[in-house]
Design a protein that fits this description.
Helix content is 70%, strand content 0%. By secondary structure, it is mostly helical. The model has no long low-confidence stretch (mean pLDDT 91).
Length: 57
């Protein structure tokens, strides 16, 4: 009976760690997505092309 109780307790602890790890991974993925979106959207300044001279003669 004591052995079974200890095993049950260990299983519950392992499940708790697993749940916490999965939540941490989800939060990290969300944060990475936010960072990627911010980098993609930029700072609001649009690109303005300008003429360049590749070879001077």
């Amino acid at each position: 009976m004591v052995k079974q109780t200890m095993q049950d307790q260990q299983l519950r602890l392992a499940e708790g760690r697993s749940t916490a790890l999965e939540q941490a991974r989800m939060l990290q993925a969300e944060e990475q997505g936010r960072a990627n979106r911010q980098r993609f959207q930029g700072n609001g300044v649009t690109y303005t092309p300008s003429p360049v001279q590749a070879f001077r003669q």
